[in-house]
Design brief:
Elements: E1 2-8, E2 12-19, E3 24-31, E4 35-37, E5 40-43, H1 45-62, E6 66-73, E7 78-81, E8 91-92, H2 100-109, H3 112-119, H4 128-138, H5 140-145, E9 148-151, H6 152-161, E10 165-167, H7 168-171, E11 177-178, E12 183-184, H8 186-192, E13 201-203, E14 207-211, H9 214-220, E15 227-233, H10 234-241, E16 249-254, E17 258-265, H11 270-275, E18 279-282, E19 288-295, H12 299-309, H13 311-320, H14 324-329, E20 340-342, E21 360-362, H15 370-394, E22 401-405, H16 412-422, E23 425-429, H17 434-446, H18 453-460, E24 463-467, H19 471-484, H20 487-492
Parallel strand pairs: 1-6, 6-15, 10-13, 16-22, 22-23
Antiparallel strand pairs: 1-2, 2-3, 4-5, 5-8, 7-9, 11-12, 14-15, 16-17, 17-19, 18-19, 20-21, 23-24
Helix pairs in contact: 2-4, 10-17, 12-13, 15-16, 16-19, 17-18
Length: 495
């Protein structure tokens, strides 16, 4: 007896299978390549579907008793299908600027505070609605052929089961969903000229969609009794997989994007949060929400350094059969440095939401080494999150501690830097796949193996290490942060 979570990301998908006691059994990962040119970025939906199909076949044939698979995905991006379920247009990524003019016009036509109070989000081109309006304006012929508008989660669920349903947290990433009433907002849909009939039915996270299509199971050579469950947005899944359910707790998702996800009791002050572009999303527990404070550059910044400036460490790691990141971190201490890095290498996320922002490395001297620069990149990401935590506190959201997951949580150096700078206890979760753990937990609850998600967490969630702040280093970082705060506005003057 086994359950699985499938996590569909921007560059690949993975399925991880667990037994009924939350113990890891098997993992499959498939990559797909996107296309990026200038400020446009897209993926072929057929590549995503192909990778999911291959992953399910491998996992199901290897583990013959998978009872349920929960589908979790990244948000905002959508798939347009015609009446024959053929893909009509590439998937536009959240960083793609198409839709920016439409978002600007929406800002003129709507009270942004009113929109934020309904949707939990600040009007921005990263969301689905402005991009759909762009397609409708520039590719009217494509839009006329559209029979279904699906985000990645409900696209995969639909392809697997034929059921059109989307969970609340993914629906919230469209800028067209009422997060309090849990329904599509007619005023915003009417404004954009999009019929609700094109959209999937909103359902709570963890709602079964039905069994996998018999024609698929027969063609793929797998069981036709596998139940497909509608999961949630990947950041919500990470919170579930970290066992974060109480107010005052949060997840530090240290992945490609760095994201702090606090749990909130009741609906928070949307005015303050929307000013900083911090979106509010329904959580899996009724009357609870989460919000996203994030930086576009997290693990992606560290990878950029490794790929471009650590050729020697990459070659040496291959020879030693070890991890190149571990080699880069050798002999680096988690003490405050004097180089300041503004990590806006892919634009600035919350609380700026400035796609034109640029990164910078400031304070270099001939005495600095490659390792000093490497550590300063980690500190730059942490400074950005410190600013976000301070912004959350302005909205009345206090964080007592952080559970950390993702590839960055495996770095003891980075974790200790964050603990020192943020003055918070950080607790890493075993494994770096909290999103798939959370998805598998939803599958187990959907099957009735556990009475609720908190009960499932007792078996599935395991803590690894605790990192406590060193107060003397916290003070030094606080002094450095006063300098860091001035850099964003200063850099705006030299773009």
């Amino acid at each position: 007896m086994a359950v699985a979570g499938i996590d569909i990301g921007s560059s690949g998908c993975k399925i991880i299978v667990y037994d009924e006691n939350g113990q890891y059994i098997f993992k499959v990962h498939q990559n797909y390549a996107g296309k990026r040119y200038q400020e446009q970025e897209e993926i072929d939906a057929n590549d995503i579907w192909s990778s999911v199909r291959k992953s399910i076949i491998i996992a199901a044939q290897k583990i013959g008793n998978i009872e349920a698979i929960t589908v979790t995905s990244f948000g905002e991006s959508f798939v347009l299908l015609d009446e024959m379920d053929q893909v009509l247009f590439p998937v536009l990524m959240y960083t793609d600027i198409r839709g920016s003019e439409q978002a600007t016009q929406m800002m003129k036509d709507f009270d942004f505070k009113k929109v934020a109070a309904v949707t939990g989000a600040k009007i921005h081109y990263m969301f689905s609605l402005p991009k759909l309006m762009w397609i409708k304006q520039h590719h009217a012929d494509i839009f006329r052929k559209t029979a279904h508008i699906l985000l990645i989660q409900d696209y995969i669920v639909y392809m697997l089961t034929g059921t059109l349903q989307i969970d609340y947290s993914i629906a919230a990433r469209t800028l067209a969903f009422d997060i309090k009433e849990k329904r599509w907002d007619q005023e915003l849909l009417n404004y954009s000229g999009i019929s609700e009939k094109l959209l999937s039915r909103p359902v709570p996270s963890g709602t079964p969609a039905g069994k996998i299509k018999s024609e698929l199971s027969e063609r793929w050579g797998i069981s036709d009794n596998i139940i497909i469950v509608t999961g949630c947005h990947d950041q919500v899944a990470a919170a579930v997989g970290c066992g974060i359910f109480a107010e005052g707790s949060a997840v530090d998702g240290a992945g490609t994007v760095e994201c702090i996800t606090p749990v909130i009791e009741g609906f928070p002050d949307s005015d303050i949060l929307s000013e900083g572009g911090i979106a509010i999303v329904p959580y899996i527990i009724p009357n609870k929400y989460v919000c996203y404070a994030f930086s576009f550059a997290g693990g992606s910044l560290i990878k950029w350094y490794k790929d471009n400036f650590a050729k020697y460490e990459i070659i040496l790691a291959e020879k030693k059969q070890t991890d190149s990141y571990s080699l880069l971190e050798e002999d680096i201490e988690a003490v405050p440095g004097n180089i300041l890095v503004v990590p806006h290498f892919n634009g600035a996320a919350t609380p700026y939401m400035d796609g034109g922002a640029k990164g910078a490395i400031i304070g270099l001297s001939l005495s600095h080494t490659a390792k000093d620069i490497y550590k300063s990149l980690m500190e730059g990401v942490a400074y950005e999150m410190l600013g976000n935590i301070m912004f959350l506190e302005k909205a009345g959201i206090k964080l007592n501690y952080l559970h950390s997951t993702g590839g960055g949580a495996k770095s003891a150096l980075w974790m200790q830097i964050k603990a020192n700078m943020l003055n918070k206890e950080l607790i890493s979760v075993q494994g770096d796949e909290a999103g798939t753990v959370g998805s598998a937990m939803l599958a187990a609850v959907a099957l009735g193996q556990y009475k609720n998600i908190e009960d499932a967490a007792k078996k599935f969630v395991h803590m690894a290490h605790k990192y406590k702040a060193r107060k003397d280093y916290t003070k030094q970082y606080s002094e450095q942060y006063e300098k860091y705060k001035k850099l964003y506005n200063l850099l705006k003057t030299v773009r």
